Amino acid sequence: MSSETRFIDFKSDKQPTWCPGCGDFGTMNGMMKALANTGNDPDNTFVVAGIGCSGKIGTYMHSYALHGVHGRALPVGTGVKMANPDLEVMVAGGDGDGYSIGSGHFIHAVRRNVDMSYVVMDNRIYGLTKGQASPTSREDFETSTTPDGPKQPPVNPLALALSAGGTFIAQSFASDSQRHAELVQEAIEHDGFGFVNVFSPCVTFNDTDTYDYFRDNLTDLAETDHDPSDRDAATDRIMDGNEYQGILYQNEDSVPYHEAHGVTEDMTDIPDGAPENATDLVREFY
Amino acid sequence: MPADFNWAIGGEAGDGIDSTGKIFARALSRAGRHVFTSKDFASRIRGGYTAYKVRTSIDQVESTVDRLDVLIALTQRTVDENIDELHEGSVIIYDGERTSMADLEIPDGMVGMDVPLKSLAEEAGGAIMRNIVALGAACEVTDFPIEHLGSSLEKRFSDKGQSIVENNKTAAELGAEFVAENYEAESTEFEYELETTDEDYVLINGDEAIGMGALAAGCRFYSGYPITPATDVMEYLTGRLERYGGHVVQAEDELSAINMALGAARAGARSMTATSGPGIDLMAETFGLVAQSETPLVICDVMRSGPSTGMPTKQEQGDLNMALFGGHGEIPRFVVAPTTISEAFWKTVEAFNLAEKYQTPVYLIADLEMAVTEQTFPPEAFDMDDVEIDRGKIVDEDEIDEWLDDEGRFRAHAATEDGISPRALPGTTDGAHMSTGLEHNELGRRTEDTEIRVEQVQKRQRKVETAKEREDWSPREFGNPDSDNLVVSWGSNEGTIVEAMDLMDEDAPTSSSCRCRTCSRART
């Protein structure tokens, strides 16, 4: 089936309830294209989603999927991949899910370097709860819960990932569908944790980080002399305050978790009774 | 001669008390004697009072008693802490060369044996073996053949090299010889002689029994976060689970631990996490998701004293309401609570079967006393041939067609008569579907439709009703069923109650007690 799989096969018959113009449409289309382009099909793909507008993605895509609790999508994806390494595991979330309530899991998922991809729809706002500050909102961004702005520096997810030992760190823009799909595809193909922060504008509650803003301010690293294998160069870019799309950093020597720990067996198949040599376990206690 | 003998070693945390106690317990077990141990310990790495107590008999022993016959005291406090359990004729072994012990006063009627533990250990090869010298001394006092101690030392130290084993054996012999030469009269008068038998016993604690049960049941994935007194489950499984193609992950917190385990279970592995009360509080967040997404998952709670951080190293059975009723909304669940260490093995196997047969979370509840107590059992108590695996309604590619709707979509949450839906493991052709913590229709798609909501709530509830009919939920009962007295209990109290009943029967033959073993309950 996989050779004929088209991106539309990853689309469910459920119509998205995202606002017209939401960046998440483009983000999802790119994810589906990337999955199809990498030879996957819905029956070998597991999508994990968290809570928020982004969390609805599991419903709109067609694959094996779990829509979990807020912020815990990465641990779920980790368990899925370890139990069945043959599955293609893609975790999706938003900036609140990944960098606020789930920030602890984010750092540790990066460290673990499990061979899966993580696509974050970063709109710098809480959309589903109707417009509160998110961890990536600007310091002076006025919202219903931060009338004078959060007055805290926004989280820099790329810097978090780099400092935690990230092996694939990329950023894309939902509106640049071709580049976005390419970058997600690279994340899937990467041997380890492929992280893509996607600028996915909220057209309803964020009038600052808009499509126009990103079109005007985004620099594509592919059009610069940036070398993704150069960690120092990546550090400079990530910390310089500019908006980039492309691969910020990729460690070509990445050793994914399953190789480092020898976790390569499908854990789903077990015998009808105790394992053959189980009596040895009892003997250990003599 | 009294039927049971009670022994203890006490000192400060960091003195190797636990390790030494276990070596002696193993020596007794290897000599064909039954053993029941208990630990007094603090949540600290060094300092503070800690003790390891061993009760042993030719017959099965199922609880501790408040009587000490031989005490190895490394500190004055060890004597003070146990003064009420010592009695006339009790032997206290100590090292008078230790400055703090030089002035130890032996209470009237008791026998003090001043053994230069450290000096003799140094003679054998190193001061670190002073506790082993004391064990040798204890063997001499009790006429316990020292070769069984040697056998236990071999098991404990063989991976460190034969010379270490030999040095330890020498240390033990020096301790025994010292007592024989200096306290011959006292040893001869001592009324306890530890007989041996040819039986082979298993010496195991509750956490290990749970871990071994998980391996027997086909568990392949374990994720956890270290917490007293559940850590031993994880430490037992680490390395062993890998032998069967599984894996243990130390997660960043309990939130992650239960979600990883959930993910592995979604993928189709038998999966488990274990924690204690503070971790259960955190896991409550995902507990509802496990039930709502109909994921088979075993969540082990080794209870300790609460609330909050409570007393991490002390016994309490305070989590029952959390297990039965915890979480917002209506959450069908099973709660399985073993009452003995050997039962902990079997209940773990049962928990995995219940989880997969009914696609629900299962709480496996143990307590600190069960977790840290080492007890002997005949190996038949863990007969692996009796382990049965039932994975429930997993459908393969040949069967999946009958569970597709008119448009070819898999009905992962189909509202069946018994409430149990078909389960397609990821990778199964045409089985792709989502599951969610949201209320959903039979395809797993979110809905707020009133009729579907009612149908799905009732469907999940029906699984519990089905299980009530199909499974054995009867309690374990002991004693005279016609008695006017009824004792209802759960958890590790069983052994104590059984022994208490025996004592009561001696006084009043008509008394009896009865106890509930397994709780099963769903909120409705």
Q: What is the name of the CATH topology of chain A?
A: Rossmann fold
Contiguous uncertain segments of 5+ residues of chain B: 511-524
Largest beta-sheet details of chain B: 6 strands, mixed
Q: Numbering strands along the chain, what is their spatial order in the largest sheet of chain B? A: 2-3-1-4-5-6
Largest sheet of chain A: 8 strands, mixed
CATH topology of the largest domain in chain B: Pyruvate-ferredoxin Oxidoreductase, domain 3
Question: What would you report as the Rg of chain A, rounded to the nearest angstrom?
Answer: 20 Å
Fraction of helical residues of chain A? 25-40%
CATH superfamily of chain A: Thiamin diphosphate (ThDP)-binding fold, Pyr/PP domains
Radius of gyration of chain B: 26 Å
**How much is the average pLDDT of chain A?**
96
Measured by DSSP, the beta-strand proportion of chain A falls in 15-25%
Question: How many helical stretches of chain B?
Answer: 17
Question: If helices are DSSP runs of H or I spanning 4 or more residues, what is the number of helices of chain A?
Answer: 11
Tally of domains of chain B: 3
Strand content range of chain B:
15-25%
Oligomer: heterodimer
EC number (chain B): 1.2.7.3
Domain Pyruvate flavodoxin/ferredoxin oxidoreductase pyrimidine binding (chain B): 213-458
Protein name (chain B): 2-oxoglutarate synthase subunit KorA
Catalytic activity (chain B): 2 oxidized [2Fe-2S]-[ferredoxin] + 2-oxoglutarate + CoA = succinyl-CoA + 2 reduced [2Fe-2S]-[ferredoxin] + CO2 + H(+)
